[in-house]
């Protein structure tokens, strides 16, 4: 029988090294960061490095030794350098993340079991102790999937969102784009509209859904600092009709201003 291991040192090291080799636009990297937390790593050094990597990722900063050199000093940089050289395959980062998550869930499960034993052997009515144990065991996570096909706990999603929100509050340059519709902008708050967002506009027919979408699109294009071309698709009406709805249509500009 194989002896149980509380952690997978090799998986943790390969994951950290793979992060440095993948670009911040990697979908695999995004899925792994969404699924893992610093406490999923057993080694305190790995926890510290992963936390910094995740912060840099959400700040849209390149994740490399040069960027980390101001924060990590001496032995830590040497430690990371050795890890990067030893990485088997950066393409398998999802596999490393899954192994890390599995060990983390096993450690958490063991902690709950030990807590349950303490409750069971303690004082109190059997019925009350049993009920408390059931509640403890019901909080054990079961999912270890990493990536688009897996399920992420709502707690992790909320924590990642809060981390990003605090980063945007502390770093205004990270704020997303505005819609130029004050009510919507107040709802989006400091986060704004970002390239990874999917915003669904729903309403009954003839309520102005298309006009609203075109107005927002025209405003974002007008900002002038979009990194990518802006495109729009409509399956209901022709392109010419949609263009006439646009505030940028020549016939809808105020004379002499160039503005709607």
What do these coordinates show?
The protein has 260 residues and is mainly α. The chain has helices spanning 9-21, 27-35, 44-58, 65-68, 75-86, 93-120, 126-138, 154-170, 182-188, 209-223, 239-245. Helix 1 crosses helix 5 (75-86) and helix 1 runs antiparallel to helix 6. Residues 250-260 have low confidence and may be disordered.
Q: What characterizes the major β-sheet?
A: none
Corresponding CATH superfamily of the largest domain: DNAb Helicase, Chain A
Compute the gyration radius: what is it? 25 Å
The best one-word shape is globular
Number of strands: 0
pLDDT averaged over residues: 76
**Helix-residue proportion:** 40-55%
Pattern of helices and strands: HHHHHHHHHHH
Low-pLDDT segments, ≥5 res: 250-260
**CATH topology type of the largest domain:** DNAb Helicase, Chain A
- Secondary-structure arrangement, i.e. CATH architecture of the largest domain: Orthogonal Bundle
CATH class wording of the largest domain: Mainly Alpha
| Cα end-to-end separation | 75 Å
Domain count: 2
Q: Assess the beta-strand content as a share of residues.
A: under 5%
Q: Structural class, from helix and strand content?
A: mainly alpha
Helical stretch tally: 11
Summarize this structure briefly:
It is built from eleven helices and no strands. It is mainly alpha-helical and 260 residues long.
